[in-house]
Amino acid sequence: MINTILFDWDGTLLDSNELINESNIYALNKFGNRIFTENDVKPFNGQNLRDVYQKLYPGLEDKILKAYNTYSDERHDQNVRLFPEVRQVLFSLKRQGCHLGVVSMKRKSMVKHGIELFDLDSTFDVVIGGDECKRKKPDGEPILLAMKKVKANFKLTLMVGDNWQDIASANNAKVKSAFVNWSQKSYKQVQQYHPTYCIDKMTDLVEIVTEENKI
């Protein structure tokens, strides 16, 4: 049975991949000593960006992160959209009685802004941002915090994401996981983390929940 579904935000529900890539390129090229391309920055998607920047340019990570956030925030509303069927499926899952939440690496304020932008406030029972947890994905702490807030059961919880960090975080939290095939990453890149499910479209989630919850 599944009665709690936690989602990553960017790249899972929100199609923001191009904006994330562009923001990384802008920030890194502003402070770095080489030219970064889209192929260079794609692997950074889903990671803790401060850690990424620190490894690349120790001592400059805070300046690069500030440049990233400024560039991304200014362009956010005009350059993001929901993936197909997201709205319909979220409301369908709510009607089935599921608790829904977001567990993201992004700052909570910007996650909530995105949720409000698309009028999804009423669908989510909990929102966890990357600035709320000391240990971030792939650690299980962000998922465990979300579960605590909605009093979720480990056996009845599913984490849905587009990166290996989401699947590994689910494993560490001892909950089921689903990898979304519309990710920038391929299934081969997450296969070693053994996601419980691999879905091709959002409506697959409704089918999974319906099947899992058969009496």
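the 2nd protein, sequnce then structure:
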Amino acid sequence: MTSSGPSDATPARRFVRTLREDVSSGLEHIVFSRLVGSALMPRTARRLLLVAAGAAVESGPGGGFTLVGSPKNLTIGHSAYLNRSVFIEALAPVGIGRDSALGMEVMIVTSHHELSSAGAWSPRSTGRPVVIGERVWIGARATILPGAVIEDDVVVAAGAVVAGRLRSHGLYAGVPAKRIRDLAPAAGEEADVATGTATSTEPSAPR
């Protein structure tokens, strides 16, 4: 949603601007929801269509997939899995790391409306990028809010609402999502107790 500027002062100009936005939104819906999200389309075909539109996608999303915003803002890593009906708003960049999994109806939102000190919200939205690391599992119907960062090796429980940064090797749940359990580093990693991160002790296998 954007605010009206001086050039939108007359009803005719407002009508033309609104018409253009509606046509653009309709075409976007047809291509990135109806076509790409069709249950009849194989994942490989979805990936190829997204790549053709400018996305950096190495894994095709599942059926019912919806993309709003620019495909050029979308990055999905190798061996990532997006289950049915995942919704991504790519007003700002959205990155999903390799070997991550998103459950059914996960929603990723990047548009943000500022609040004034008096509590009034701005009609002009701004984009805040979302980063999802590698080997992340996000449960069904979780919501990822603008500006969220989910580090590597995190599990997000179903229905959680994620804001801010989720640190590595943790299970998060609730609204807003809170760390409820530490997860052990994978084999070949040593936990750094001071920082809560993990450092690999073995060279990565070629992939």
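The first helix runs from residue 11 to 35. The first strand starts at residue 56 and ends at 57.
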